[in-house]
Amino acid sequence: SRLPHVETANRDAARAVTEYLLQLGHRRIGYLAGPTANVLEHDRFAGYSDALAAGGIALDRELVQPGDFSLGAGEAAARAYLTLPKLPDAVFACNDAMAMGLIRGFVAAGVSVPDQISIAGFDDIEFASAYNPALTTVRQSRREIGACAAAMLIDLMEGEQPASRQI
User: What are the tens digits of pLDDT across the range 15-42?
Assistant: First the structure.
């Protein structure tokens, strides 16, 4: 392979974000899912679940909300969380757009972020740091991931097996 192997490690990154929230003292950590058919969703949910299990926290399905990677899904999830007898301490959203929607939904309902609830996202989109409050998020190097994927494709086109089938 022409470029070093890079693994996005969605599962590991999602686990690290959830562990971070646990280290902050949060115990009721919600999860805002991506589309069920999306492989990223499966990896990120697995990382979230791994971290909870390692922290001795049982997975509470009531704290898992469906989403579709949109701002509107985040707002809808905030409304759903607000119907619970007790809010989560934190929510890990499967992407930044939904995390921003969560913040918007909670703030509109008078819930202070991050004072009353912490929100974390995934992808570090351009607007994550400009959002108010600035979003805690996972950054991935899309350029490096794309370069590795292209190198793998070239290897396959030249009849070579890439070092790995996963980026």
Answer: 999 999 999 999 999 999 999 998 889 9
C-alpha distances out from residue 142 to 6, 11, 74, 110, 123, Å: 11, 16, 23, 36, 9
pTM across the whole model? 0.80
Q: How far does Cα 92 stand from its chain's mean position?
A: 6
The Cα–Cα gap between 54 and 40 comes to 21
Contact 77, 53 (CB under 8 A): no
Closest CA to 101 of 135, 137, 70: 70
